[in-house]
What we know:
Layout: H1 3-28, H2 44-50, H3 55-58, H4 77-88, H5 97-101, H6 106-117, H7 134-140, H8 142-145, H9 164-176, H10 182-188, H11 193-204
Helix pairs in contact: 2-6, 4-6, 9-10, 9-11
Amino acid sequence: MTSLNRLVGLALASAGALTLAAAGLAADAPQPTKVSWRSPPGDPKRGAQLAQPCLACHAASAPEMTPHAPKLNRTRQSYLVSALLAFRDGQRQSAIMGPMVAGLKDQDIRDLAAYVSGEMLDKPPKSNEQDPYYGFVRAHCTMCHGESGIGEMEGMPVLTGQDPAYLQNALEEYRKGIRKDPTMAGVAAKLTPEQEKGAAAYFAQYDWLEKLK
């Protein structure tokens, strides 16, 4: 074997080793769970029983927390299912939510989401075009979230009427890489803390989401 052939052989062997190592790392990393949020359908009555521990943070009477607990009533079942699965399966890290959902089965999660989401309203509120952040939101957010935070895609969180401190904290976590999402990471990376606060206040001004009763 010539020196050139030996070099090529070593390079191919090294590349193969790196590929195998990367595959091993990928196998060890938490993988997203593919679970239908529609079928079998969630049972809101059973979900109400399962949700009792959730009310300590998410009920209307719950004290404010740091970080703030999000409002969940009148959001999408599809988003709630995906979020709970992400916490359960290690895609999202939370010292609070991780242990809360660790033992839940797929159907438990569908039942919880069916209860917590409640009933969506008929149509989104009209966007406030006089708000100083209206133009900013149109430029950065409306493709996915719409002008007032509802959006049209399943799996998308409802921002309309969400707690502003929660929204601002979420944007900060996307900017810092704590929350993982390629689309939101790209958007949040360009935001200043002042813009995060302004965008959060814009979506929070509308009447839609409510805490669980």
